[in-house]
Amino acid sequence: xxxxxxxxxxxxxxDSMSRVSVGAQLTFIRLWLVADDAGRIEDQDSPLHMPTLxxxxxxxPQRHVAxxxxxxxxxxxxxxxxxxxxxxLRVVNWRRHQRICNPTPSR
Length: 107
Fold this sequence. Notes:
Blueprint: H1 15-18, H2 22-34, E1 40-42, H3 49-54, H4 59-62, H5 65-74, E2 78-83, E3 86-91, H6 94-97
Antiparallel strand pairs: 1-3, 2-3
Helix pairs in contact: 2-5
């Protein structure tokens, strides 16, 4: 079940956000909406998985999601990794920015 997430006012003046495109900024916010309570997201090997998850029913943004995720990784906002061959993505500093009451453990 999705949870409500917070976007704090200093997001607009963030150093990392000043170094990425507006599309990458929106992608970052949308990642928060689909992340689990630990800030992790299953990043399937399918090139359509993440674009469809983040921008359903919107063809134009879907074409740019891969490059926007690369921007976010480059500035240290996300980390991509694998566990048993399965790709995942983690939002860096998740607990500093999102306060979760009664968190559900990551699977």
